[in-house]
Design goal:
Number of domains: 3
Bound molecules: 3-methyl-2-oxobutanoic acid, zinc ion
Helix content: 25-40%
Strand content: 15-25%
Structural class: alpha/beta
Distance between the termini: 26 Å
CATH architecture of the largest domain: Alpha-Beta Barrel
Length: about 525
């Protein structure tokens, strides 16, 4: 990977670092759907997971690596042979793959986390980078907590990692502590001081604890880094990682100041954001590039300026990131063929026939209920079908009695592990009654952390998207569902979160991974 000096490689870690964010765990099916799209978008390297962390991670790295056509799959490993073996075993079906191995290099982490001195860390780098290189010529090495590492020691570790075969050197701002001027200096120093630095690509991996992840990543690129590690919607540990869409659009929009380019088809960014958020959690309305309000102009003066010349208040076009005016698309007489065409038009090209069939069935029901069916409605139907994988609990029917005076009541039928069960419950409001029914039919102890409703499009007949976040023994899952009936969407969103929790309960983690996770990988 070399070539043009202004080419910046995009390394996406939505499914690894992004998944480490509370409530963002994704099923295999979700990861596959996301990967199909990432492959089309032009992401260079996809870090799919941490194969040694769990059977589920191993399986998803393996399955995703089989379907990628152009993106290079990558697995993460600590400095242990067991982790590196898990990477190479899970990636063995891919034509080309990357092993990303890391160790902490800051005094704080070496002492308190690793209990190793500098010599021991250097020995570990030598042993494990050399070992990883036996299985692939594409090895990335990261110095965890890089921005709090002594710079002279960092230069030594980087030189050694390259000598042992690392072809990409990643500098993580693991705790989001750095600022652009400091990050610039770190990259410049490595370029000036490490004698073999020309044998590797320098990479940034910035967390957003101070809201500087994107600024620090761009500073790194301007100083000479040519790979950026980032996630869609900026999801990731704590405050998240640098947002891929922001990095790419900043370089594209301010190409006068940052004359770099990537391989990303920016017109698919909005779609990627929606797909990732449907599998994880909603995007804030004012989020740059992909937030619902990112291209909305509310103030009269702004609207007036926009009508005269869009450049007055728009620095990039909505179309350039795939945001279209929500258009009236189809009616109840539209057939399956037209529906499929529409999906292609909206960018859903890798979707299976089963999903198309399910979404088409839902579309017919929706078109009967709703006067206007918009692009966004169709997208939310497909996303809704995509996020419903192998659910063991499904809603069969729901009747709700609500209004003033009466106690609110829900009658519900669920299919629980293939068995049909019915319950009636009253509650403090209809949603409470619904959630109580679910609890009665499938006994469980989870805490409801968040319940949110958004309208997909405009009008009182709009579909509602409901997001629900639940917690059980420190594990968090997020469920989402859309329906013109907000209460049906509420039931389905809760069930979606619960089904994910059931899958999560069954995931096994190695003894020390949980520990490691808490320390900020
Ligand atoms: O933030 C971090 O340091 C990481 C490394 C594993 C690259 O995620
Ligand atoms: Zn990270």
């Amino acid at each position: 990977m070399s070539g043009d000096k202004n080419r910046v490689y995009i390394f996406d870690t939505t499914m690894r670092d992004g998944e480490q964010s509370p409530g963002a765990s994704m099923s295999l099916e979700e990861k596959l759907n996301i990967s199909y799209l990432f492959d089309q978008i032009g992401i260079d390297i996809i870090e799919v997971g941490f194969p040694a962390a769990s059977k589920g991670d191993f399986e998803s790295v393996s399955e995703v690596s089989k379907i990628l056509k152009t993106s290079i799959p990558c697995g993460l490993s600590r400095h242990t042979k067991k982790d590196i073996d898990a990477c190479k075993d899970s990636l063995k079906f891919a034509e080309r793959f990357r092993i990303h191995t890391f160790i902490s290099t800051s005094p704080l982490h070496m002492k308190h986390k690793l209990n190793k001195n500098t010599e021991e860390v250097l020995d570990a780098i030598k042993e494990h980078v050399t070992y990883a290189r036996k299985f692939t010529d594409n090895v990335e090495w990261s110095c965890e907590d890089g921005t709090r590492t002594d710079i002279d020691f960092m230069c030594k570790t980087v030189e050694l990692a390259i000598k042992c075969g690392a072809t990409t050197i990643n500098i993580p701002d693991t705790v989001g502590y750095s600022v652009p001027s400091e990050f610039t200096q770190i990259i410049k120093k490595l370029i000036n001081k490490v004698p073999n630095i020309d044998k590797a690509i320098l990479s940034t991996h910035c967390h957003n604890d101070l809201g500087l992840a994107v600024a620090n990543s761009l500073a790194g690129v301007m100083a000479g880094a040519r790979q950026v590690e980032c996630t869609i919607n900026g999801i990731g540990e704590r405050a998240g990682n640098a947002a891929l869409e922001e990095i790419v659009m900043a370089m594209k929009t301010r190409n006068d100041l940052m004359p770099f380019y990537t391989n990303i088809n920016t017109k698919l960014l909005n779609k990627a954001s929606k797909l990732v958020s449907s599998a994880t959690y909603p995007v804030q309305f004012n989020k740059a590039i992909v937030g619902k309000n990112a291209f909305a102009h509310e103030a009269g003066i702004h609207q007036d300026g926009m009508l005269k010349n869009r450049n007055t208040y728009e620095i990039m076009t909505p179309e350039s990131v795939g945001v279209k005016q929500s258009s009236l698309v189809m009616g109840k007489h539209s057939g399956r063929h037209a529906f499929k065409e529409k999906l292609n038009d909206l960018g859903y090209t890798g979707v299976t026939d089963d999903i198309i069939q399910t979404a088409f069935g839902k579309f017919k029901i929706l078109a009967d209920k709703k006067k206007h069916v918009y692009d966004d409605d169709i997208a939310s139907l497909v996303d809704d079908s995509l996020i419903k994988g192998d659910n063991v609990i499904n809603l069969k029917s729901l009747k709700v009695f609500a209004g003033t005076g009466e106690p609110q009541k829900a009658d519900m039928t669920l299919e629980v592990y293939g068995e049909i069960k019915k319950a009636s419950e009253t509650g403090d409001g209809p949603v409470d009654a619904i959630f109580k029914c679910i609890k009665k039919l499938y006994s469980h102890e989870v805490k409801l952390q968040l319940y949110q409703v958004h309208a997909v499009t405009e009008g009182t007949d709009a579909q509602a998207t409901v997001s629900v976040r639940i917690e059980e023994k420190g594990k968090i899952t997020v469920g989402q569902a859309a329906d013109t009936d907000t209460l049906v969407a509420s039931a389905n969103a809760y069930l979606n979160a619960l089904n994910k929790m059931i899958i999560k309960r069954n995931k096994t983690a190695p003894e020390d991974y949980g520990q490691e996770k808490m320390k900020g990988i």
